[in-house]
User: Fold these one by one.
Assistant:
Number 1:
Amino acid sequence: MTRKPLPAIKPNTIEFETQALIKPTGFREYDARWWFGIPGHEKDPELNLYGVQALGEGLGTLMHEYDIEPKIAVGHDFRHYSLSIKQALTVGLMNTGIEVLDIGMALSPMAYFAQFHLDCPGVAMVTASHNSNGWSGVKMGIEPPLTFGPDEMARLKEIVLEGQSKPRAGGSYKYVDGVKDAYIADLVKGVKLKNKIKVVAACGNGTAGAFVEEVLTKIGAEVVAVECELDYTFPNYNPNPEDMKMLHAMRDSCLEHSAAVALGFDGDGDRCGVVDDTGEEIFADKVGVMLARDLSALYPDAQFVADVKSTGLFLTDPVLIANGAKTDYYKTGHSYIKRRSKELNALVGFEKSGHYFFNAPIGRGYDCGLTSAIAILQMLDRNPEKKMSDLREALPKTWGSPTMSPLCADETKYGVVDRVVAEYLKAFKDGDKIMGMNIRDVNTVNGVRMTLEDGTWGLVRASSNTPNLVVVVESPTSEENKIGMFREIEARLAKYEEIGEYNQKI
């Protein structure tokens, strides 16, 4: 198939069953994600199976362009359409001469592990991660443990949409047994808790439910499994540990079972959310600071990486300063933080979304929610006299928001952010005051992070995966200033007719 895919085709037509459909906006900064559709939904699909085949052919062609060994591990998450999408992707890969190693249903980190375990450079994981039912996508890489960045995605998009794929002979398919067991064995190797820690493991009926209880039990935890039964309709809540509905359900379970901690996993298992023993939801960047404190005591002068959505405590926390820890703030996105962590040989890279990247000697460099969970439980195990709430309360006080996501179409979101960046840069240059304070700094590495003289900051950026903007605010001085910063951003964004409703506000 070297035909150019069409950007839009009406379903229930002969064209939909004979032509490749790929909406161009599905090619994002570091992975691919489309609305595949579910029966009865009014939104038309952005991708069909012939489109997926064309994507596979494009990926195979790209591997040859990069002179990569033509071998790739493929996996899929637990959604009713993911297996068929993976099979269509496999056809495309085989058409371009790629040896496909099918590892079956998997977590994204299990697919990344397969690159090491099966000694193959390529990975393609069919998953929509935490997106709602009806979405699908592919996370891809050709250099373990890294996944694609903007350059690879831009070239892949060009190959696919321009019909530049080149058929080749030599493609093959093999289903590989045993990768799940090897992945779990790799996770628990050398790990045994000294203390019996009771943990709620919440999976929102996503793919992680097939893995979590076994892994945490093997390291010696007492596991209370919550919504771990696989159910792709997500009857309780969408498996997203940044979403307050999931966090509140975790809180309720933690209190009900008198657990030491509740850990929640997203749909493809590469993120971990945390609720402490008092039922307090701890945002992932604060958990990152707690882990950085624990690990920098074991590894003096440790280097960390954090994304621009994360708390300022990575730079100002006195314990981290005393331990000689250093943190580099970088672009939000699992591919960016993963790559930056490798470049700087960081011990861990942290994202506010809950993607953590543990490098040697702790992990293999990719984001894995189970590796994060084990690290959190080991932190508790090393501090048996303290509860999770004690570790949280020991942090310097800040007032931070959840990640808020006002709607903004993929076609317009980057343009809107560019205009917002320009507004804040002008305000900084002109010496404007916000909330009666001077602007201390404007960081534009990824959207705009604007900091006031008291350390209160606000971030506006475009989401890399969904048709949304991203808004985060934090203040080290007061709840009032946190809310004030949000009101400043909210009022500024209200001027843009391209921006729609928020998923949540403060």
Number 2:
Amino acid sequence: LVKTGWVGISFIPITFYHFFVYFLGIKKLNEKIILYSSYGITFIFICFLLSSNLFITGYFDSFWGHYPRAGFLHPFFLIFLTLLTLRIFYLLYREMSQEKKGARFYQLKFVFWALIFYVLSATDFIVNYEFNFYPIGFIFIILFLGIFSYTIVAHRLMDIKLVFRKSTVFVLSLVSILIPAFILKYFFERYLGDFSAWLDLV
């Protein structure tokens, strides 16, 4: 189950890179070579993941539950992830330097900041090396999704035009706040004791 779950995680670097190549409209041959080669590397990682213990060597027990343990190939995956992320930042920065103003510039600007928050979620990989702290990457992913959603609504990212009634915006905003709040409340009550009196107030 741990290894099966990691199949999806293995695809994160390449699918992000593929999205940005498409989003930025890059059609150069060298970029396509990097893209298809990266898919090949990803499938190699997945083959090692499912057929051996070289990538993920099972799991370990921590104070909040089970978590995957990194194997010999895991650092190489992190290097691969880092190289693709740096490539994405380079492509975004190059595009931003060419767009000084206008709707496209603001789309690129907000996507750039959203990506920075998403990169911070990579702190969860540290836990794979049995550092005993709770993985908080989901917080950065929520921030990433919030900025990305704002860019879609306010700046028509990817030419998506959403028309909402004010009541719909209010309900969606409320839900986006309450769901993380209930998750945090559950975590605190289960692992750190009963703080319901002041936690409910917060």
Number 3:
Amino acid sequence: MGSARKPRKKRKIKTDANLGRSNLVIGLTGPFGSGCSRMREVLTQEEFGFQPFKISHDIREELKSENKLIEKGEPGWRKLLQERGNKRREKDRAYWVKKVLNRIDKAGISTEDIVIDGFRNFQEVQEIRKVYPRFFLVAICAEKEERWRRVRKDYRDYNEFEDDDRRDQNEEFDWGQSVQRCVDDADYV
């Protein structure tokens, strides 16, 4: 009765890029000043251990390399970032996502949890969902008055804040700022 079973051969797991990556990835979106950066800081603490990435890092680096970066708080600094983000996405909706993916690849993060801060365009969210099957978009939202209190030092006046906020929420072209659409698409709010 004791028939011995043959040991099974171990199957090789395909790592084809088209199959997606296995990392747990949390993407953060929300109106500026809501607390996405703070959430990124919390998730990267030792007890959670997420590896942090920020989309605007690549925009800033590109502007810096061209000596066009304006310091945070200088007039027009956020508008400059918005315009550069839009310009690159107009030709390639996944431009900034590809930049982040390149940084992730260079960091050699194959199984670690990742947090990506700063999704401001709906098309970028759709692109990252194609790559990471375990991607969850989290929207962090705060009342406008609270956001103004948090970012007022970065603005000359409330009108400049209002202009940036209006543009950030929903520009009328696919490659533009569309934070409200990202919030609406979020897996968690």
